[in-house]
């Protein structure tokens, strides 16, 4: 909108606003004079004043003209402001005529009444300053002229008996109207500007929300499109690794392929995790777990990589830590990201993970987690940027150590979800220390839930069990069938929800793996129809979408579990053994 249009629109709106706000006050002025002014003629009648007929005729003429203006207003021809102005302009010559033709023995009462009328005008009228100025100029010209023409002595008598104060008050009339109008217009301008800004902000908000929704939908779709083939790659690599008869060259190629697929999966997960955090889709799921066991598992997972680089890897924690009530997966993700970075950017020396108790109450324990290294370090001017998305200390990062630059950004946001703040201390060439404190509910050590199987034993599926695999992707079906064949588990396959429903109606199954997005009939509809027949059969959602809202939708739609692609064989078998009866 250009400035000319903006000003024009504002002025039009102001005229409309001013008319609405002052309409009834301006009409009150009109009605008061149309009724009250002729009524004053009867005062002359009660005093047996011979000027009564003349005054009555003049005031009835005024009222008749005034009624015409009111009629025009109510017909929508003129505004209330115009009607009150025209009534006032009609009143002036009528009143001047009376002043000129009707002699007064004293003008005390006349000047007093005229002053009261002026005060009434101050109170009820809401005019632009120019209209008030025109009326004032006419009063100043007409009334003294009428008095002086009638008889010079009338003029001096009127001025000496209160007329002077009336004219002084009349001179103030345009100033009062001008400043009142200006103040009201300024107030309206502020409200108008605020409304304009609110409207623009609302539009920007809608644009931002639409962009965020589009981004989430895009990432959800891309997640499905990328993770579905990635599931086949990761799964097949694990199947190939199990074949011990391959040559060393083939094993090296498979190991390289495994590394690349794992790295690609980490990149996809990082991007999706950061998008979920920014979209408020990440919710913590607290549960009781053993922090010592978590640290031990993390140590074992990073030990091979540390040994490859000849680094000393230390994990330290207090003895007899209580059981922690928190989201184990997200806490593990934070520590994993920090340790991964520490190992990646340290060529010699050590990486040390420390957990210390900083305080304890009856219900909560305050733990400080820190990850220190003797790596390249980060300069002071770059430290404020390391938590930004897609940021790395580029001048110090070797090409082979590249990544998404999302790990620290994700870790910081996850720590904030826990109620803490990720801090950094570092110096070039002397390593870095990332640390954060969390206050977590705890319970004293108790007997942890025992696993269903003996360590080292291989569970066996009941010989009567049968699984239905439903997926429209041939590679995913091939991977899942190979995993089931290795355990000699009977199965059937379907490429869409309609086929799955037909097979279910003709065959008894103990477990169904159901893809969510398929042609003909999707997984949600197929599951709904199956649930109408059997409310207890385990149906596992098999999907490439890692978004929390789709998980919640699936579980609310009748699915009993949720498996995200790409999945590892151990994750697949874990669900199979958990959902199907195991022979003892």
Topology summary:
Elements: H1 3-39, H2 41-46, H3 52-74, H4 80-101, H5 108-124, H6 129-150, H7 152-241, H8 248-278, E1 287-289, H9 291-308, E2 311-316, E3 323-326, H10 328-344, E4 349-360, E5 364-373, H11 407-418, E6 423-426, E7 432-443, E8 460-461, E9 467-470, H12 474-486, E10 491-494, H13 497-506, E11 511-515, H14 523-533, E12 539-543, H15 548-556, E13 561-564, H16 569-579, E14 582-583
Parallel strand pairs: 2-4, 9-10, 9-11, 11-12, 12-13
Antiparallel strand pairs: 1-3, 3-7, 4-5, 5-7, 6-7, 8-14
Helix pairs in contact: 1-3, 1-4, 1-7, 3-4, 4-6, 5-7, 6-7, 7-8, 7-12, 8-11, 9-10, 10-11, 13-14
Modified residues (4-aspartylphosphate): 515
Catalytic activity: ATP + protein L-histidine = ADP + protein N-phospho-L-histidine
GO molecular function: protein histidine kinase activity
Explain the overall architecture.
With 584 residues, the protein is an alpha/beta fold. The chain has four domains: 3-202, no CATH class; 227-278; 291-443, Heat Shock Protein 90, CATH 3.30.565.10; 460-583, Rossmann fold (3-Layer(aba) Sandwich). Helices cover 60% and strands 13% of the residues. It is built from 16 helices and 14 strands. The protein has helices at 3-39, 41-46, 52-74, 80-101, 108-124, 129-150, 152-241, 248-278, 291-308, 328-344, 407-418, 474-486, 497-506, 523-533, 548-556, 569-579; strands at residues 287-289, 311-316, 323-326, 349-360, 364-373, 423-426, 432-443, 460-461, 467-470, 491-494, 511-515, 539-543, 561-564, 582-583. Strands 1, 2, 3, 4, 5, 6 and 7 form a seven-stranded mixed sheet that branches. It has a five-stranded parallel sheet with strand order 10-9-11-12-13, sandwiched between helices. β11 (511-515), α14 (523-533) and β12 (539-543) form a beta-alpha-beta unit. The protein is elongated. The model is unreliable at 1-6, 390-404 and 446-456 (pLDDT under 50).
């Amino acid at each position: 909108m250009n400035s000319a249009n903006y000003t024009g629109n504002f002025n039009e709106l102001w005229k409309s606003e001013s008319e609405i706000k002052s309409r009834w006050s301006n009409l009150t002025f009109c009605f008061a004079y149309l009724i009250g002014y002729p009524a004053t003629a009867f005062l002359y009648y009660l005093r047996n004043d011979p000027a009564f007929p003349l005054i009555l005729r003049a005031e009835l003429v005024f009222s008749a003209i005034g009624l015409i203006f009111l009629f025009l207003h109510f017909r929508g021809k003129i505004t209330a402001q115009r009607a009150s102005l025209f009534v006032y302009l009609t009143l002036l010559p009528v009143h001047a005529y009376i002043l000129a033709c009707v002699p007064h023995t004293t003008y005390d009462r006349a000047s007093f009444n005229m002053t009261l009328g002026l005060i009434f005008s101050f109170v009820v009228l809401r005019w632009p300053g120019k209209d008030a100025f025109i009326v004032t100029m006419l009063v100043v010209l007409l009334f003294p002229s009428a008095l002086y023409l009638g008889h010079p002595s009338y003029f001096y008598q009127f001025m000496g008996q209160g007329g002077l104060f009336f004219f002084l008050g009349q001179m103030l009339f345009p100033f009062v109207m001008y400043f009142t109008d200006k103040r009201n217009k300024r107030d309206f301008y502020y409200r108008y500007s605020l409304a304009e800004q609110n409207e623009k902000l609302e539009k920007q908000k809608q644009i931002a929300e639409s962009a965020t929704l589009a981004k989430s939908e895009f990432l959800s779709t891309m997640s499905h499109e990328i993770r579905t083939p990635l599931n086949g790659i990761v799964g097949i690599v694990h199947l190939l690794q199990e074949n011990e008869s391959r040559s060393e060259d083939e094993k090296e190629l498979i190991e390289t392929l495994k590394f690349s697929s794992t790295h690609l999966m980490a990149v996809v997960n990082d991007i999706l995790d950061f998008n979920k955090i920014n979209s408020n889709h990440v919710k913590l799921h607290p549960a009781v777990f053993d922090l010592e066991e978590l640290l031990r598992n993390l140590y074992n997972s990073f030990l091979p990589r540390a040994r490859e680089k000849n680094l000393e890897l230390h994990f330290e924690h207090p003895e007899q830590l209580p059981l922690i009530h928190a989201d184990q997966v997200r806490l593990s993700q934070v520590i994993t990201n920090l340790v991964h970075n520490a190992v990646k950017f340290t060529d010699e020396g050590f990486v040390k993970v420390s957990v210390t108790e900083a305080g304890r109450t009856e219900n909560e324990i305050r733990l400080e987690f820190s990850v220190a290294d003797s790596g390249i370090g980060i300069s002071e001017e770059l430290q404020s940027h390391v938590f930004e998305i897609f940021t790395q200390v580029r001048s110090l990062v070797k090409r082979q150590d590249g990544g998404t630059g999302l790990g620290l950004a994700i870790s910081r946001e996850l720590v904030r979800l826990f109620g803490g703040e990720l801090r950094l201390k570092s110096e070039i060439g002397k390593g870095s220390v990332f640390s954060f404190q969390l206050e977590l509910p705890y319970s004293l050590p108790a007997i942890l839930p025992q696993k269903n199987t003996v360590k080292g034993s291989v569970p066996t599926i009941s010989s009567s069990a049968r699984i239905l695999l439903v997926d429209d992707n041939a590679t995913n079906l091939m991977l899942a069938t190979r995993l089931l064949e290795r355990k000699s588990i009977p199965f059937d396959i379907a490429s869409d929800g309609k086929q799955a429903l037909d097979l279910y109606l003709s065959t008894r199954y103990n477990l169904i793996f159901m893809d969510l997005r398929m042609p003909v009939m999707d997984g949600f509809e197929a599951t709904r129809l199956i649930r109408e027949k059997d409310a207890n059969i385990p149906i596992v959602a098999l999907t490439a979408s890692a978004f929390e809202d789709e998980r919640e939708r699936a579980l609310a739609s009748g699915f009993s579990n949720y498996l995200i692609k790409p999945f590892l064989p151990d994750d697949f078998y874990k669900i199979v053994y958990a959902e199907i009866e195991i022979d003892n």
